[in-house]
Inverse folding.
């Protein structure tokens, strides 16, 4: 008996450094810079039948660098950009927490801040996702660790801004989301 019949496949996407440029604690929707080729890559993944779910750590909330409203307006603008390009993001989860934060009630140790798996678990449950056929694309070791801990195959986009522990080995190293999309759809 195959328990995977009817299950969905998904590409979980980190936001900063994968979909949009990582400008550090992005607060203003006007500062959104779409990563080159990422829109086209999302179209390819959608056409191949993948759900698209964004999973993003936004500790700037806990640290008081921006508000929930700021973040909501950034995400509104981002979905508008995608909508204008015919792309629907199936869901977006963010973690507003940080244990060293100053803003209550977000200054806690949570189970959703990557590398914790809370956000992926939520998506897997809600959309009945087959993790064996699903992927995570990120640019930090915490993204790769979330993937490993969630049973997802991982793509690591090299980002010179962040340290990379050689012991955290992704399934694939890629230069951008487009390269990941090509590998994913070739294998599917
Ligand atoms: Mg990132
Ligand atoms: Zn959290």
């Amino acid at each position: 008996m195959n328990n995977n019949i009817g299950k969905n496949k998904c590409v979980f996407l980190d936001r900063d450094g994968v979909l949009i440029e990582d400008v550090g604690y992005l607060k203003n929707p006007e500062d959104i810079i779409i990563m080159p080729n990422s829109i086209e890559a999302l179209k390819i993944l959608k056409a191949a039948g993948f759900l698209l779910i964004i999973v993003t750590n936004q500790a700037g909330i806990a640290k008081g660098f921006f508000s929930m409203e700021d973040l909501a307006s950034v995400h509104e603008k981002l979905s508008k950009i995608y909508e204008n390009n015919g792309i629907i993001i199936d869901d977006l989860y963010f973690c507003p927490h940080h244990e060293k934060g100053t803003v209550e009630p977000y200054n806690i140790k949570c189970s959703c801040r990557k590398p914790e798996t809370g956000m992926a678990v939520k998506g897997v449950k809600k959309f009945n996702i087959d993790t064996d056929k699903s992927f995570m694309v990120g640019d930090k070791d915490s993204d790769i660790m979330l993937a490993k801990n969630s049973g997802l195959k991982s793509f690591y986009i090299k980002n010179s801004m962040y340290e990379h522990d050689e012991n955290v080995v992704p399934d694939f190293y890629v230069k951008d989301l487009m390269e990941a999309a090509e590998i994913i759809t070739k294998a599917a």
